[in-house]
Structure formats: structure tokens, C-alpha cells
Amino acid sequence: MRKRAIAILLTAFCAVALPPHVHAKGLWDSIDVRIRMGYSIGGTVPLDMPTSIRSLDAFRPTPSPMAGADATVWVSPRLGFAAGLHIENKGMDAEVTVKSYRMEMRQGGSQMAGLFTGHVKQEVTQWMVTLPVQAIASLGKVLTLKAGPYFSFLISKGFSGIAFDGYLRQGNPTGPKITIGDEEGEWATYDFRDSMRSLQWGIAAGVDWCFSRHLGLSVDLGWGLSGVFQSDFETVEQTLYPIYGTLGLLYRF
Amino acid sequence: MKNCFWTCVAACAAMLTAGCIKEEPKNNECDIVSAWVEGEEYAEFFFQPSQMRVENVPSNSNDIVFTVRTGSVLPPMAVWFELTPGATIEPASGSPQDFSQGAVEYTVRSEDGEWSRTYRVSFREAQSPSYTFSFEHVDSALNEGNNSYYNVFYEFDADGTRRDIWASGNPGVALINPAWHTWQFPTHSVDDGYQGRGVCLTTQSAGALGAMMGKPIAAGNLFIGAFNISAVLFDPLRATEFGTPIDREPVKVSGWYKYQPGAVFTDAQMNEVPGRTDVASIYAVFFRNEDAEGNSVVLDGENVWTSDLIVSKARVDTLPPTDHWTRFEMVFEGNNADPATLASLGYSMTLVFSSSKGGDLFEGAIGSSLHVDEVKVEYKEH
Question: Would you give the distance in Å from CA A184 to the centre of its chain?
């Protein structure tokens, strides 16, 4: 029922924006609605790995589901445009070994910042509503290629972690050296969620493979072009971009 | 099957990332980790072999002091250093230098060449500090990491050399509080002492960050010894390193205090403990400062009251709350010192003041306030 409602809503939206000849042909002939569910995996990462990151010790995919619908308007037998609405998470759970890695803890009025050498466990959660706008190319009845920009509004954010088993030099490499242990109370925690951007954008491309009349599989790659943090946030020196691939199941009306 | 898939994905991600891992940057630290003098020709200047080494130089100290026998006429001394890996030192480690005119400055440069620290290394004759502590000598120390200033109390030797025998938890509090002034710290100087200036110790909230790290309060404390900043988060009881070598045997400590406990007593989880009232703590410990293996020893929060090396100790039993300067006195109880060991500086003494007795375990009442002034230590006539 709900899927139907979304389809109708998207159809109505497209109807307004459609070129005149499409109207002439009739809506249902030229609009292709696809409902999708998928699972994303990827990272929120710097494009240029800083030298302070010495090794990636663990990487776990966190639950990153995606659900949504797209509507394609065909302007020719092979070409079309699509718009959609997805709800998705772009999460990550990683553990790295760092050397002289800049970090900051801030809680209430108290704050401690410096260079950390040791291990960092990082958790990222980014629940968002994404609006993709894509150009569509059909390669026969089975395969469709998609590419275009997307815009995301974050509804729930998380960027936190712990620094453990190492030491912090406060301020700079000559500052007081604080040993950081590997048990709760001995380690340092941080949470940068308040410094995350609420709007992200990037480009996405993918393929839909319809193996039956209604069902299909999809593979998509979303490449963030905006950093996940506000531009005045300097604690994490490198700009981090969300880069996620999504495997999905689709239903075509 | 599913697990296998994720393992493959994770492995691919790991390989991709591993491919991006850059060459390791050169070290940017430039510390002296330890310093020592070696060789028979130098041993005669020291009371004990353990005094020929200064181990675990605190990361926030730029002074390295060797204690030598009184009346020593020092030839050029070769001091050896252990540095942060890759760092270099000028003058060179092991090069003979003339210390007879006072401290010699050494500059340590990091492996990457970007950072340097200057240390003052000196050889000082064994001297005990004055035996009356009036707390008139106060300095402001800067925590360079975040521009906070806190008070440091010090004394003078008989020959007028400054001795930083007093330590407090202030450096730990400074870590998490940017741009604080001296009077905001749990341990600070006050103008209205019993005579002249005095010490004010106040139990404070350690803020949201302190609470997050399981250390919700910071008691005001002042003690003879050193504060090892490195352990403050990892092992706070080890951060307080008690004692400095002394050439006399203490028998009694007296002084003046004022005390008011804070309103609400809380435990280490910051839960209120109804019916419990905070109490202050004043005690002193006299102990052997070298263990059976010949290593020099300081006591810490774990063993200051229980170590086998303790010779005698003293504690003020009760410190009733009072708004007026009130006299306290405590007598050392235990064994007698060995005169020969005493003469070779084989004993140390600490004197400890805290606004909350359970402050080392993060128990106490925020607002508890202990003032101390004009403390006198009396010694046995040998």
C-alpha cells in the first residue's frame, strides 16, 4: 500500500515536469517506477591517506540498509531521466593504528587536544534521506545504466570513537605525555557528531539488471563530493568523504 | 556464506587501504627519557650507585638533577642520555662537560628536525630543604598545551638554590581546562595565610571530561614529591610520586589549618552517599629510598601507607571543621633510622595535605576546603 502511494506520488511529481510529447503518449507508457531495498558498504575516508595512519587493523560493515523508490521518464526509447527518494545509512566501524594523529576531546567546558600515538576505534553513523537525480540509458530490456548527482539530508549523525593503548602529547610533540590505557576509564573517547554537516552531495552511478518482468538486482556507487564535517571543523585534519557501494534488490512496476 | 562474503569485502577494503598507507613519518618527539653517569672514576662523587641515574624524566620537566656528595669538586662529567628514537642531542651524549659552574644546557632535536627541547642538567650537592614551610614561595607554571596557569610551591636550600620539592595534581587538572587562572585550580596560593601567604586546597568537579573518564572530582592536594603527569589518566594512584631524600630523621610535624567539608559527599561514580561527611587528610611518611636491588624508590598512591620500605609515619587523627586557624600536630611512629644510611641520603620523607581524604579514589565532597600554613618539621638530634 505504501509502495503504491510512493509510486503515485513520484508519478504525480513527474507528470508536472514532463515534456509535452510524453503526456501525449500517456503516463504509464513512459514512466518506469522502481522500488528498491539494498545494503551499503563503504567508508567515510580521506581521499589522500594521511601519514599519521599507519595501518588498518579491523574493518566491520555496520548495518547500512537502503530503501527507496525511483521514477524514470523516458524521453526516447533508450534515454531517460530519473528522480528518487531513498532512506539510507552510511555507516562504518574501523580500527586503525596511528602515529602522531591529531585529536581532540571536548565535553562541556573541558577540553583536551593533542597528538595521539596508538590505536583508534572509529564508529560512523549517517542516516539520511537522499534525492538522486540521474540520467538513464537502457541497454535492451534487461540492463539500465544510471549516473548523476545526489543530495542527502542527514536525519541522524554519529562520529565517535575511542583512542586506546598509546599516549597523547598535549598541544604539540613537546607537550605533556599522557599514557592512554586499553580499559574503560583509561582510554579517551571523542564524539564529533555536532560538527557534522546536515547536507551532503555527490555523484552516483550504477546498473540495474532486471532478470524477470518485475524483479531485478542493482549495483550502485555513491561518491561524496562534500566532506562530512563543517568546513570550520579542524580537529580531523583531512576532509573525509563518504564513499559507499550499494547492492540492491528492485521491484519494477 | 554471508560471513564469507563480508570477509572478502573486508579483505578487499583492507587491501585497498593498505595500498594507500604512506611511508611512516619521522618521529617528531624530542625527549630525554633517562640520563646517567657511568664509570668507577665518577662513582666516588655519589652516595649510592642509584643516584648515578635519573630514570623516567617526566615529559613536562626540563630539569635533570643529579645529587652528589657535599664538598665534591667535580671534574668534567660525561652524561649519557636515552632519547626519543631518532632524536639527536647537542652537546653529544657521553661528551665530558663542565658542570662546576652550574647547569649545562642540552638541546634535543626530533628526528624530523621540526621540534626541539632544551634541558638543564646539573649536579647539586645534597641539601635538605628548610625545615619550616611557610608557603611564601609561589610560582605560576604554564601548561603550554592549552595556556592554563597553575601555582607551584617551592623552597630554598641553605645555599639559596631553588628546590621544587612540592607537587600537586594541578598539572593533571590543567590538561583538560584551557586558559584557566591559578586561582581556579584545586591547589593554589592565598594571601590570607596564618602568617603571610598560605595554601588553599579545594575539592572540585573535574568537569564533564573528567567524569567521562571516571574521575569526576579533583581534590586539592599538596605533597613533597613529584607529579607524574604520564599516569594521570591510565593509573592515577601512580601519578603521585611521594618523597624527597632527607638527611635528618623526623619526629614531629605541626602547623596551622582551617577546614570546611563540602555539602554533598559523592563516590567515584558521582553518586551521593547520604550521611557521609568529607574529611581532610594530613600525614607524613619517612622511608628507605632504595630497594634491596639498589634501585631508587619513590612511594605512590598505591603503597604510601603500606610499603615495606616505610620506617615511620605520622597522621593527624581528626581535623574538625573550623573557620579559624587551628593548630595541628602529628608524631612519627615506627622504627629508628640508621645513622649511616641517613648520612648517605638513604631515606626520603613526604608530607601530604588533601582536602578530601578519599580524593585519590575520587571520593569526596565538591567544595571541601582545607587551608594550611606555617608547617614545621622537628627532627631527632643525632
Answer: 30
What pLDDT, in 10s, does the model give residues B61-106? 899 999 898 888 899 999 999 999 999 999 999 999 999 988 999 9
Range A28-43 average pLDDT: 86
Terminal CA-CA length for chain B = 83
Paired strand residues for A95: A58, A121
Q: Are A153 and A132 within 8 A, CB to CB? A: no
Residue A108 to residue B24, Cβ atoms within 8 A: no
Domains and CATH numbers, chain B: 32-124 (2.60.40.2340), 127-379 (2.60.120.890)
- Per-residue CA distances from B372 to A124, A140, A206, B208 (Å): 50, 90, 74, 29
Q: How many CB atoms within 10 Å of residue B82?
A: 15
Average confidence score pLDDT of chain B: 90
Number of neighbours of residue B344 by Cβ within 10 angstroms: 18
Using CB atoms, pick whichever of A59, A99, A108 lies closest to residue B208: A108
pLDDT, residue B16, reads 53
Cα(B78)–Cα(A2) distance, rounded to whole angstroms?
84
Nearest Cα residue to B31 out of B88, B73, B105, B78: B88
3-state secondary structure of B41: helix
Sequence spans of domains, chain A: 2-252
What ipTM does the predicted assembly reach? 0.84
B-chain residues near A54 (CB < 8 A): 21, 24
Task: Name the grid cell of B7.
Answer: 570477509
Which cell goes with A176? 605533556
Least CB-CB distance to A49: which of B20, B24, B143? B20
Q: Are strands A65-74 and A31-46 parallel, antiparallel or unpaired?
A: antiparallel
Per 3-state DSSP, chain A is made up of helix, strand and coil in percentages (nearest 5) of: 10, 65, 25
For chain B, say whether A174 makes contact (Cβ under 8 Å). yes
Q: Specify the 3-state DSSP secondary structure of B52.
A: helix
Residues in chain A: 253
**How far is Cα B310 from Cα A97, in angstroms, rounded to an integer?**
43
Query: Which residue among B28, B177, B210 sits closest to A173, beta carbon to beta carbon?
Result: B28
Contact B265, B273 (CB under 8 A): yes
Q: How far is CA B201 from CA B115, B166, B189, B239, in A?
A: 36, 14, 9, 18
**What is the DSSP annotation of B326-374?**
EEEEEE-EEPPPPHHHHHTT-EEEEEEEESSTTGGGT-EETT-EEEEEE
Contact B216, B364 (CB under 8 A): no
Query: What top-level class would CATH report for the domain A2-252?
Result: mainly beta
- What is the structure's pLDDT at B381? 79
**How many other CB atoms are there within 10 angstroms of residue B233's CB atom?**
26
CA dihedral B181, B168, B235, A107 (to 10 degrees): -10
Separation CA A240–CA A44 (nearest Å): 6
Between β-strands B364-365 and B265-266, what pairing exists: parallel, antiparallel or unpaired?
Answer: antiparallel
List beta partners, residue A214: none
Residues of chain A contacting residue B117, judged by C-beta atoms under 8 Å apart = 174
Q: Using 50, 70 and 90 to split pLDDT, how confident is the model at B118?
A: very high
Q: Which triple of cell numbers denotes residue B154?
A: 617551592
Instruction: Please tell me the distance from the alpha carbon of residue A93 to that of residue A121, in angstroms, as a whole number.
Output: 7
Task: Determine the Cα–Cα distance for residues B201 and B220; give it in Å rounded to an integer.
Answer: 4
